[in-house]
Amino acid sequence: MTFQLDLDIAAPAEKVFGFVADFTTMPTWYSAVQRVELVEGVSGVGTRYRVYRDLPGGRALNDVAITGYSEGAEVTFTSLSGPTPFTYRYLVQPSRDTTRLILEGTISASGLSGPAALLGPLAERLFKGGMRDNLGTLKQLLE
């Protein structure tokens, strides 16, 4: 499933970018993410994280890397392992009074097992709604 979500945040672009470019902030605003550990790097392409998530099929572990990076403007995270392969590309666009945050993503439920595997297409649709809620939480934290 490919999707795009965007929202305006009443915060400086530098603050928004700094927050989303640091994957370790995810547990504070992304409901499925329980814990994130920095594995390698500090920031920029090649930085790697281990992500512990709660999914419909149970607990999941993903290894994630920054695969695209332009300071202050764009960061892309790609899962290297785990049951739900994903790529999230965050674009940060400053404007006069707000910052536009655009999330372009792809995610698949192809790695889910058991009863959750039968829910693959539904899980993907539910994900988009959940991600919209997560971005709402992010907005509240940054404003």
Structure in a nutshell:
The chain is α+β, with helices and mostly antiparallel strands and 143 residues long.
Could you give the topology of this structure?
Layout: E1 2-9, H1 13-20, E2 33-40, E3 48-55, E4 58-70, E5 74-81, E6 86-94, E7 99-107, H2 115-118, H3 120-142
Antiparallel strand pairs: 1-7, 2-3, 3-4, 4-5, 5-6, 6-7
Key features?
seven-stranded antiparallel β-sheet, alpha+beta, 44% strand, 3 helices, single chain, 143 residues, Alpha-D-Glucose-1,6-Bisphosphate, Chain A, domain 4, 24% helix
Shape: globular
Our estimate of the beta-strand percent is 35-45%
CATH topology: Alpha-D-Glucose-1,6-Bisphosphate, Chain A, domain 4
Strand order of the largest sheet: 1-7-6-5-4-3-2
Helix fraction? 10-25%
CATH superfamily: START domain
Mean pLDDT: 86
Termini separation comes to 30 Å
What does this structure look like?
- With 143 residues, the protein is of the alpha+beta class.
- It has one domain (2-142): Alpha-D-Glucose-1,6-Bisphosphate, Chain A, domain 4 (2-Layer Sandwich), CATH 3.30.530.20.
- It is 24% helix and 44% strand.
- It is built from 3 helices and 7 strands, in the order βαββββββαα.
- It has helices at residues 13-20, 115-118, 120-142; strands at 2-9, 33-40, 48-55, 58-70, 74-81, 86-94, 99-107.
- A 7-stranded antiparallel beta sheet has the order 1-7-6-5-4-3-2, covered by helices on one side.
- Strand 3 (48-55) and strand 4 form a beta hairpin.
- The protein is globular.
- The N and C termini lie far apart (30 Å).
- The mean pLDDT is 86.
